[in-house]
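Task 17 of the worksheet. Students: predict the tertiary structure of the chain below and write it out as C-alpha cells. Keep your answer in the requested format; marks are given for formatting as well as content.
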Amino acid sequence: MSKARVLVVEHQNDAGLGLVGERLRESGVEIETVGPDAGLEVPRSLEGYDGLIVLGGSMGPTEDDRAPWLPATRSLLAEGVAQGLPTLGICLGAQLLATATGGHVRTMPDGPEVGLHTVRFGESAAGDPLFEGFAGAEVPAVQWHWLEADQLPDRTRVLASSGACANQAFRIGDRAWGVQFHPEALGDTAQDWADEGKQDLDELGLDGATVVTGVRAAEGELRQAWSRVADRFAALVQQAGQ
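Model answer:
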C-alpha cells in the first residue's frame, strides 16, 4: 500500500515545514517539496497528491514578477478547495489561499505582528477537523507578517483572531485552511528570520535577541498546541489517500 503524499510549496529555504514536517513524517506521510530552492517547479495540478501545504515567504501574494511561481501556486490552492483536498496555507500561503478564492490582502493598518503573540479561537472552532478543542482558547503562536487577508471569500468560516489581525485562522469549504500565524515555527526558525530581517526589526524598535528568546521560552507550549493540529492534518491526508 503506497504512502499518502502531500505536496509542499516552499517559497524560500528559511521558511520550511519545521514542526509540521516533523509531525507529518512521524505520521508516515510522504512529503514532496517544490519551489525555487528545492529546485523543482510547482506542478500544474494536484493529480497524484493527497494534500497540499503552501508555506510562508517574504513576498506578497500577487508579486508575480518577484516570484513567478505564484500564479501556479494560486491555481493549486483553488484546485485544492474545489476538490475538497486537505489544504493548508501558512502566512503567505494563507494570503495566497484567500487571493486565489476571491478574497483580498492588504498591508496591516496598525503595523505588523512579529514574534510570540496570542491567537484567540472563537466558538466557530468547535467541531472543526483541525482545531477541535481550541474553541474559546488563547494559544501562543509565532507571528511574522506585515500583510493580512482583510476580506475572505464566500463559504469561509473564521476560526481565530488577534487584536491586530481579525482573520488569524479560517476554513474555506470543508478541507482548506489558512493560518496567518506560523504553527511550524520554533526558536531556530525565529532566529533565522531575526538575523535576516534585522533591519526590519530595527525599524520597528524590536530587539531580535529578545524576540527569539520569547519564542524559545514558549517552545513547549508551541509544540504541544501545533503538533495536535499537524497530526490532524496528517490524518486527513491519509484518509484522502485511501
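Marker's comment: The longest strand covers residues 113-121. The mean pLDDT is 97.
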